């Protein structure tokens, strides 16, 4: 049942992405997916990460505890109908969350495609035209100057980060 | 002065910041319709002229003079402007959530993604793709985020209504592709 999982954790954008990946292996409507095996795979995966002493983001652990709650409720003998309903609601909420996440993951792909098309067009920056008659409006203050310089710093930092591989403990 | 030359001149000078039709018509002292015609004419002229590297594009409601698509390979090695740079997977995810659900708070974004997103939001703000547009009337008064005009330019559309929709059929088809891809990543 459980396939060999040899994907690195940083290939995923958080626990929902990982769950989406596991759910997708069933190749069926997201709301029909048997949750308990998925939960088991998830927990297994987290355990493997731990034995390898890899850094796991806190969000993965939080999700693990939510999943364990669902699983334990599933396995326990039922006391009342309310309890079953409650458990089903928990499961449904989780599946709805994965489904919603899936939607945005797909949309982000289409935005990226749009951007790729746009990025093929290059323009030059605006020509600054200065004449003798130009007078200053004086509508900028110290805050504007600060923010402008700050933005340049942030962009630079981002560029350096993009060009170099950083190892970060999350 | 020639009308076409005037429009071409103004578009050249404005460069990547571009001009709206209204700005163009008041600067060139022509009617909006005449400007529109000139732009169409210019675009066709450039298109027909194989010895010209230029074209005119319309994004975020502005006309911009740009280089033709086919030169992108050549230019990508030379130039790297923020506009032509692509974003990381997480930044793209956050950007699309903001684009479709704006205005919304950081917490709402994090609930949707299941991960902390403050760093990514800071990046998107530095790139001027999203901005703070107000505060939510709730405890803590969290900031509300929305996309900027530059975002429209970044993905090459004129208004938010042009954002791609979730097409259910395509959704299922792309799901397969998406998952097959991630399976490949796995191996």
TrEMBL record, chain B:
InterPro entries: ScpB_csome_segregation, WH-like_DNA-bd_sf, WH_DNA-bd_sf. This is Segregation and condensation protein B. Its main location: cytoplasm. Participates in chromosomal partition during cell division. May act via the formation of a condensin-like complex containing Smc and ScpA that pull DNA away from mid-cell into both cell halves. Pfam families: SMC_ScpB. NCBIfam families: SMC-Scp complex subunit ScpB (TIGR00281). It comes from Lactococcus protaetiae. Signal peptide: none annotated.
């Amino acid at each position: 049942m459980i396939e060999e999982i040899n994907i690195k954790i940083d290939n995923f954008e958080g626990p929902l992405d990982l769950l989406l990946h596991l759910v997708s292996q069933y190749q069926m409507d997201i709301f029909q997916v048997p949750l308990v095996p998925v939960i088991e795979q998830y927990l297994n995966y987290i355990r493997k990460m731990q034995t390898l002493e890899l850094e796991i983001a806190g969000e993965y652990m939080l999700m693990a505890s939510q999943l364990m709650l669902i699983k334990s409720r599933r396995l326990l003998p039922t006391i009342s109908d309310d309890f079953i309903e409650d458990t089903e609601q928990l499961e449904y909420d989780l599946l709805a969350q994965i489904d919603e996440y899936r939607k945005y993951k797909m949309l982000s792909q289409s935005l990226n495609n749009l951007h790729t098309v746009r990025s093929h067009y290059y323009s030059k920056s605006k020509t600054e035209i200065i004449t003798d008659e130009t007078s200053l409006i004086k509508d900028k203050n110290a805050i504007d100057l600060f923010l402008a310089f700050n933005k340049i710093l942030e962009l630079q930092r981002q560029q350096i980060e993009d060009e170099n591989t950083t190892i970060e403990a999350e | 002065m020639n009308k076409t030359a005037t429009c071409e001149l103004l578009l050249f000078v404005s460069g990547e910041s571009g001009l709206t039709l209204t700005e163009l018509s008041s600067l060139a002292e022509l009617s909006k319709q005449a400007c529109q015609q000139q732009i169409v004419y210019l675009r066709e002229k450039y298109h027909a002229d194989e010895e010209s590297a230029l074209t005119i594009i319309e994004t975020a409601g502005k006309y911009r003079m740009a280089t033709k698509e086919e030169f992108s390979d050549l230019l990508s090695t030379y130039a790297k402007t923020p506009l032509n740079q692509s974003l990381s997977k997480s930044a793209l995810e956050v950007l699309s959530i903001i684009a479709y659900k704006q205005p919304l708070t950081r917490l709402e974004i994090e609930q949707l993604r299941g991960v902390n997103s403050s760093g990514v939001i800071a990046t998107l703000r530095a790139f001027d793709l999203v901005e703070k547009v107000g505060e939510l009337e709730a405890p803590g008064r969290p900031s509300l985020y929305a996309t900027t005009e530059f975002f429209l330019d970044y993905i090459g559309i004129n208004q938010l209504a042009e954002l791609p929709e979730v097409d259910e059929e395509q959704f299922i088809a792309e799901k397969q592709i998406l998952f097959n891809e991630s399976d490949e990543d796995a191996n």
